[in-house]
Amino acid sequence: MTGDDAVAFVREHGIVLASAKGRVPRLTDVIAGAPIAGSWWAHPEGRRIFAILRAVETSPDVLVCRLVDGKITFVHRRLWPALVRLAPRFATARLARVQQRHTSSGAHVNDVQPFPDWVPPEVAAAAQRMTTAAAEQQLRVVAGPDPA
Question: Which of 18, 70, 75, 99 has the greatest count of CB atoms below 10 A from its CB?
């Protein structure tokens, strides 16, 4: 699997967890070709997994946030209008864009861009045109019907 293959996987599934277990696919398992027991960092393919995850994280077509259970989640651009449409159903912190950078000391630092600051104007416009039912259908794995 390449970085492009991984982005295509995210596009196909729409919402994917980076490495946590949850109700959507876990990308590290897909990259490794089988479920990973323990930390993926210790996996024999750890360096390759890291490189592919970085390719996904830096793709302009992928939002990195904490949508699913507060864990690092990849959301493909095709679902961004639905996500924006249903944003009131989620904690705002779960919709913030997370960008990881590495300091010169090797530490990882998360830069967070709050929602809706990261939303492109064309996505906001598409969200306004979208019906709630259509958004719910697209995000059915993480957002059911409005309880109101």
Answer: 75
Q: Is residue 148 part of a domain?
A: no
In a domain, 68, yes or no: yes
Distance from C-alpha of 114 to C-alpha of 63, rounded to nearest angstrom: 12
Rg of the chain (C-alpha set): 16
* Tens-place pLDDT, residues 101-139: 878 887 888 999 999 999 999 999 999 999 999 999 999
- Neighbouring-strand partners of residue 110: 100
Residue 92: domain span: 3-138
The answer to the question of residue 143 being in a domain is no
Cα first-last separation, the chain: 43
Q: What is the pTM of this model?
A: 0.92
List the 73-76 sheet strands across, edge first: 15-17, 73-76, 62-65
Number of domains, the chain: 1
For residue 23, being part of any structural domain is answered with yes
Question: Which pLDDT band, with edges at 50, 70 and 90, does 145 fall under?
Answer: low
